[in-house]
Amino acid sequence: MSVTSEYSDGKPAVSFCLLDGGGRVVAERDSGTRYYPASTIKLAVLLAVMRDIDAGLRSLDDTVVVRRTFTSAQPGADPFTLETDDADERFPDDGTAMQLRDVLDRMIYRSSNEATNLALELIGLDAVNDTITDAGLVSTKMKRLIGDIAARDGGLTNQTTASDLARLMRVIVSGMLTSAGSTRFMITALEHQDFAYIAPGLPAGVRWGSKSGWVEGITHDVAFIGTPGTAATLYLAVCTRGYDERQGIEAVGAMAAGITTPLLIAAPEDFDA
């Protein structure tokens, strides 16, 4: 049975985009189809913050005070608090002081919505959308914070495509918009990923880092495969809609295995961890 939700029209869909190290399309299927991005949009937030750091506007050592209530993007709406299903049960208590580096790390490897919204309120949505433009993405946008139901119901949404996600991952990993230090920080966060859907479809020993996303009826993952930033690195995004969580995860992993296995077998030395 297909899954319908606020983010899925219930029509099953699978899209993917595979890029080589030079950004050329190796393989794709419906890579321009637009999806709700779920947590994959956090990559754009990460990149935007790191650009601010490189510009000297803030530092990874800056202190951020934890909270779970945020300003809605919907005009006239009350501040919102993340619902239980959206919350990171391991996130520190409200009022706790965290370094920005830890906020960003948790946003990626734990996919923490609290961390994401703290980062977003620090830099603003405009900075994220400017970064999306500078990264050369054509269909991605971020109009609201994570868990902002009033804004969602008011028509303010986030969106992306498999093509944009693969290109965004390449921009991050290759350091096209960031310093060497900021690029290393982002790669390390990606390699610590707790929720990996592409990686189980890869042969053992292959180096990878990723950012997945899931909400009801939506399952995505985007990964780099191989030594970061080299000519041999692959960038793969797989997006699905209309499946439950288990089905979506299985679909992403199976698609990743089918797409990448012939390439990894042909030149395994290019992808060793």
Automatic annotation (TrEMBL):
Domain of life: Bacteria
Enzyme class: hydrolase
Record keyword Hydrolase present: yes
Record-listed E.C. numbers: 3.5.2.6
Gene3D superfamilies (UniProt xref): DD-peptidase/beta-lactamase superfamily
Entry annotated with the keyword Chloroplast: no
Keywords: Hydrolase
InterPro entries reported for this sequence: Beta-lactam/transpept-like, Beta-lactam_cat, Beta-lactam_class-A
Ranges of residues in domain Beta-lactamase class A catalytic: 27-240
Name used for this protein in its record: Beta-lactamase class A
